[in-house]
């Protein structure tokens, strides 16, 4: 293992690991780090992973993050995306303006829903994602502004809300939340947020102080793995040779 991996590269490896065991499904990552992670997964442990341009085409090649796909593999018109979602054949990595202790996500508005202080993207397909197929989150800036006691508007559903729906929530699978500080999941009491690993150079108190609610932090929490030499070579020379990753998660 290489010890000089940057925080961004550790986060890329953590995002790559989100897709372990997924098989032939569509990866839909949001954010530079998450997108590099999905491409790294396809070049290493998940060769069957499907990648698209986000519009209408699946691609066979795996170019650098700031270069276009060039080798078409198949068509994926927008209408077909909903078929994949309904069949659970997709793993989306979303962002979030807010996430609460139960994994509920807000992409819509800050403040009162009817008179918000800030209007955001809107609900989009967040509820459909969280109820039909695997969902993870990538948060580039772990802070108390994002990790809040209660989200202002629920767009993506956490575990407790999904379970309250009965059979309608049976496919709910919020796998993990990767941030610039740690990897989290919903394994805490009552489906609440817990720390799965902490990135090298970060302490448990760093993660807790950047979170607006009490995290479940098990004893002996592991350190997030460092990328292998092969992974670092792929990240640095093929997937992100112009180091866009360091702009999303600076080393200092």
TrEMBL record:
InterPro entries for the chain:
CoA_trans_fam_I, NagB/RpiA_transferase-like
- Mind telling me which Gene3D superfamilies this protein's record contains? Glutaconate Coenzyme A-transferase (3.40.1080.10)
Query: Which Pfam family is one of this chain's hits?
Result: CoA_trans
What protein family is recorded? Belongs to the 3-oxoacid CoA-transferase subunit B family.
Q: What is this protein called?
A: CoA-transferase
- Source species: Microbacterium candidum
